[in-house]
Amino acid sequence: MSRPRRELTPELERALKLRLEMRRRGPEFVRMDQWRHARIEDSGWRRPRSLDNKIRQQRKGYPPKVKSGYRKPALARGLHPSGFVEALVYRPEDLDPLDPKTYAVRIASGVGLRKRLEIIKKAAEKGFYILNPGKKALEELKRAEQRQAEAQQTAQQQAAAPQEASQQQAQGAAQVEEKDKSAGQ
Predict the structure, then answer these.
(1) What Cα–Cα distance (Å) separates residue 162 from each residue in 2, 154, 156, 165, 166?
(2) Closest by CA position to 128, among listed 155, 104, 97, 161
(3) Closest Cα partner for 130 from 93, 84, 77, 96?
(4) Do residues 87 and 104 make contact, with C-beta atoms less than 8 angstroms apart?
(5) In whole angstroms, what is the distance from residue 163 CA to residue 158 CA?
(6) Contacts of 133 by beta carbon, 8 Å cutoff, 6+ apart
(7) Which of 23, 24, 27, 19 is nearest to 67 (CA)?
(8) 179 contacts: CB under 8 Å, gap ≥ 6
(9) Rounded to whole angstroms, what are the CA distances from 5 to 23, 27, 67?
(10) Which of 35, 72, 99, 167 is 20 to 30 A from 131 in CA distance terms?
């Protein structure tokens, strides 16, 4: 299953590259004292509120404060790194109004295996890029394809078997007739 690509305008492609570069160069915003306490190490950004907070005061030697100047380009905002707009899908019918050229499908986490398989099949038919197909779902699809291929082979063998049997019966009948003729003479 090949991965579909979105046709990007030069402006959008430039904005995506710029967003990636800004993410690489930009600071990692941290909560105050996250380097001091293990309990808040991975808690992410919290706005500093106290009067004496050095991040709020933007003192030298402290991590940077979140400001609007760090914002990413407006064209690339909210897009997947591939350039697609993400669409959260809960059921196969959710794919109908979407355009596969602009949307990539993300299957909701609460969707079970059976419905996930239905969504994947329908999305593949329409040509969508699926961001999270799931390992179990892909394995199940491969198994289903193998079962289908085996069923086709057995059907072809069964269809060929009666023809062979009828040919053998015809040959056997011809041999019996020849024996009768030779015995009758």
Answers:
(1) 40, 13, 11, 5, 6
(2) 104
(3) 84
(4) yes
(5) 9
(6) 107, 116, 120
(7) 27
(8) none
(9) 22, 30, 34
(10) 72
**How far apart are the C-alpha atoms of 113 and 93, rounded to whole Å?**
16
- The pLDDT tens digits for 72-106 are 999 999 999 989 999 999 999 999 999 999 999 99
Select the more confidently predicted residue: 55 or 41: 55
Distance in Å from the first CA to the final CA of the chain: 69
User: How far is Cα 174 from Cα 168, in angstroms, rounded to an integer?
Assistant: 10
- DSSP letters, 46-97, are ----STT-TTTTT-TTSPPPP-GGGPPPTTTTTB-TTSPEEEEESSGGGGTT
- The Cα–Cα gap between 29 and 46 comes to 9
Q: Which amino acid is at 32?
A: M
Q: Does the pTM exceed 0.85?
A: no
